[in-house]
């Protein structure tokens, strides 16, 4: 385990890629296979993390901040599909995200695309300065 | 939101992998599923970004620069398929790209391959010094 | 080959994303196609590496450390599915992992998902400070 | 274009993940869809790059160096399947690779898996100190 003084992580993370298909998802009934865009956040420190997420678009001003909490020593696999305050994430729309935290965290971006029955996956670490 | 003095990002990004299949795309009619190679660029600062993209090949001199603009506080999911000035990106040809910006941006590389009906996805952050 | 004094690597690696489906794996019989979550570890130095892996969850305290050894000049493609001491990795449960090594190593995260017959793959370098 | 004095890149790159299926590839006839493990190397400087690739395994000493040249201002999408001097890369065997260059280059790892007809893709930047 990590000493509380020095958990690995950064306070700002950037994910330039984002896209959520229409919710119908090809008639998928099983929630495990429903398509989603996820930011996997790990807070391995001893203080709860308060995140502020800002979404950027191609042709309008940014949306947010979306407020999310990740408790100490916990991971949150946050689905962008579920964000709805201050506004839902528009479907079939290119977006990008910046995640700011008040304590160090690590963020990985993952997408499951199930529109064509066969699953497709992508993942990459988010970018941090 | 970020203070305009210090938006996260870098001015030079490198994507060694690039390959665009033939345009026919297996007869795909729906543009959402058409295969593409994308550089997702986020400019979360308060100044517009002017990009200069250079393409490198296996056996000829580089092409470019391709000039692209990403406005302040906007993201551009740029499809290499659409670049055509000074010349189109050749199909079925290995290439690599270097993206230079006059202000800090963040770049993520994504490919959607739909040649076999089932989708395949890859994504990674571009590399920056 | 690398001089033993300076093998490339880091001592702490973070993988925020983790998820293992139910073991049945859609009736897959061929072990090559069985779904798995993997941490590919390379120890290219001249001293054996002792790893301590800690798993983080959404709603309980972390598990571990899991102890794993990677000999000098060897790679280990470690399947999280196989970890069982001090406890198995729960299925269908979001988790994250931190890998700590006593010598420098490099870690890449890969998932093969075969739940829908068609394979889906993701991979990214783990994150290191 | 980049001034020759300062091309972006690094001299050492690490890819912990590597695995080449059996060559039969499910009877695939079309070379574009044949499965492969690739290291995409970009040399955007003005001097040719001489690469030395070392392969690491789970249970034997490393193989190599494999010698590869990437000319100035060129990219090489190198298929590990094609390496055969000093020895072919064993099939169905976990391996890892370290790529050392005498000038700065950038390396991205990509795998196309076509064993199940539907394509699966993964990609990530290689790791550099």
From TrEMBL, chains A, B, C, D:
It comes from the Bacteria. It holds the Pfam family ASRT. Residues 1-33 are annotated as: Disordered. This is Sensory rhodopsin transducer.
